[in-house]
Specification:
The structure is a single chain. By secondary structure, the chain is mainly α. The protein has two domains: about 45 residues, no CATH class; about 200 residues. It contains 13 helices and no strands. Helix 9 runs parallel beside helix 12. It is elongated and about 90 Å long.
Length: about 270
Amino acid sequence: MDCAEIRSGFVAGRVPAGPGVDEHLKECPHCHELFERGAQLGRRLALSVLPTVEAGDLFARVDQELSREVGLRARLRAVPTRTRATLLAGVIGLNLLGVQLFMHRRDDFGEYSPALFWLVAALLIGALVFGVQRLLHGANAPLRVAERDGAFAISLLALPGLLALIAPLGAAHGDIEDAALAWASSGNCFVFGAVAVVPFLVLAWLFERRDRVPFVALASAGALSGIGANLLLHLHCGSEHLGHLLLGHASIGLAWALALGLCGRLSRAS
């Protein structure tokens, strides 16, 4: 019995025992420490070491991985990250430029402050582009600090609400908006924005390289969908009512983040 055999025993999930072990421990103080206090140290070290994979198990795992990497999603996963990020952000961009800005832009587009309008749009676009890049790089950065990703997701969720506080400042105040109508129409904007970003979420799922997506990544994807929805609604809806903006616009990202997080929890439990 030698040191390697004793360590292999721990890695295999058992505590080595027998005359050979006893003889070795009399001469090896290092291995003796592994058996102190009920072999706690040996058990802990074994948990931090991946078990040796037998040849048959290795080939089975390779076959399983290869069988998974077929079809449309496998091809999309293989696309370079920069290209995937461009396509994902482009889903919002095409809808933004092709539909909202030129065909269904807000009624007060000519009266709203151009400086504030494009400032809000630029902040949302910047957050969307940066967030998409970070989300798609997640599979390649397994050592990233989880707290930092959580803070990033929270900032994406909070941004639409913060912008809703300043958005009314650029509106023309010649006519006072009816508060009851603003509250009532917030549901229409919520449904419109939440549905409009479904293609974004579908493509994000197709591009995702992780089979078990962390909760914080799901929350970030939901928050990014909210950023995209608020960008579309910023061009589409001319309401200046703060309650309407918070309930009908800014809440979309939070709703999608909660929905995706719940779906992820259910999938892991099944």
